[in-house]
Amino acid sequence: MTKVAVLIETTDNEVKAANFGVLTAAHGDGHEIYAFLTGADAEGCKAVLGKYGVGAIISIEGDGADLQAKPDLKAKAIIAAMKEYETSVLLALSSSEGRDILARVAASLKVPLATDCLSVDISSSTVRKPYFSGKTIATLKMNGAYFLSAIRPNAVEPAEAPAEAAVISFTAVVGDYDGLVVKEIKQSSSGKVDLSEANVIVSGGRPIGSEENFKILEECADAMGGAVGASRVSVDEGYAPHSIQVGQTGKIVNPRLYIACGISGSVQHFAGMKTSKVIVAINSDKDAPIFNKCDYGIVGDIFEVVPALTAELAK
C-alpha cells in the first residue's frame, strides 16, 4: 500500500477547488490518501475532502510556533507528519504557496522535486511536465526516498471518489528560529479569482485601449465566475497590472475556457495559455495568428462582441 499525502490550500477556511485535481492525481490501486492541512478548520473541510478520496485529514500544528508566518517551520512540521504517518509521496498545487513549501521540504530531505507538472504516475515514480515554453513535454523519472511533485492547477480533471475522512490532530516539535517571517500577505485587487487557478479567463490585448475599458472584460469574466488576464503589450501600455499578465514573462494558466480579446497570438503569449482546454479568439483582424491556434474564432469588434456575450450569459 502506498501512502500519499496532499498539501491542501485553503482560502478563508474553504478548500480551494484547484486541490481536487491534485487529490484525483493521488488516486491509484492500494493508495491511501492523507490530506495535510495547516491553518484551517479540519472539521469544516472534512465533507468536501472526503468526496475526493481522502481517508485521513491530518491537522498539523507546531508546538507553539505560527506555521503560517514561518514557512521553514511549516516545512519542518510537514516533514514530521510525513515520517509519523509514513507517507512516501507528497503532492501539492504548483502555486506560489505550494512551490515554496515543497522546495523547502525537498531541500531538507535532500530529494528531487518536480513542479508545474501536467500529470504524475506514482506507481512508476514519473511525472510529465512542459519545457521550452511548452514546445515539448518531458517525462521525468524521480529517484529518491520520497516522491515530491507540484501539479499545475486544472491540469488534472477532478473525479470524485467518496471516502469517510477521519480528522487527526498532529503537533510537530519544530522549536523556533530567527529566519524568514511573513508579516503580511497583500492580495491583488485585480480580481476575485486567482488567475493561475481560474477555470475561465477573459484576456485583453492592446486594442482594449485603456485601463477603464478592461471593465467590459471584468463583467464578462464575472458572469462566468472567471478571472481577467492581459497580454504583455496591454500591461506595458499601463492598461493592466503585471499580476494578471499571461504569457512567457507572466503567468502560465490552464483554464477550461480561455477567451482572447484583441490578442494577436504571439508565441510568447501563446506559451502561457496553450494548454487551455478550449480557446476562443475575438479579433477584428481576420488574419491574426491567434485564429490558427484557437478552437473557436470570432472576427469582430471586441467592444461589440464582448458586451453581447456578457448580456447573453446574464440571461
Write the layout of secondary structure elements.
Layout: E1 2-7, E2 10-11, E3 14-15, H1 19-25, E4 31-37, H2 42-50, E5 56-62, H3 71-84, E6 89-93, H4 96-109, E7 113-117, E8 119-121, E9 126-131, E10 136-141, E11 147-151, E12 166-172, E13 200-204, H5 215-223, E14 227-230, H6 232-236, E15 257-261, H7 267-273, E16 278-283, E17 296-299, H8 302-314
Parallel strand pairs: 1-4, 1-6, 4-5, 5-12, 6-11, 7-11, 13-14, 13-15, 15-16, 16-17
Antiparallel strand pairs: 2-3, 8-9, 9-10
Helix pairs in contact: 3-4, 5-8
CATH class of the largest domain, please?
Alpha Beta
Summarize the amount of helix as a percent range.
Answer: 10-25%
Strand content: 25-35%
CATH-level-2 architecture of the largest domain: 3-Layer(aba) Sandwich
What structural category arises from helix and sheet content?
A: alpha/beta
N-to-C CA distance: 50 Å
Radius of gyration: 21 Å
SSE order, one letter for each helix or strand: EEEHEHEHEHEEEEEEEHEHEHEEH
The low-confidence parts are: none
CATH topology of the largest domain: Rossmann fold
Number of domains: 2
What's the rounded overall pLDDT mean? 93
Shape type: elongated
The CATH fourth-level homologous superfamily of the largest domain: HUPs
Main sheet overview: 7 strands, parallel
Q: What is the spatial order of strands in the main beta sheet? A: 7-11-6-1-4-5-12
Note the total helix count: 8
What's the count of strands? 17
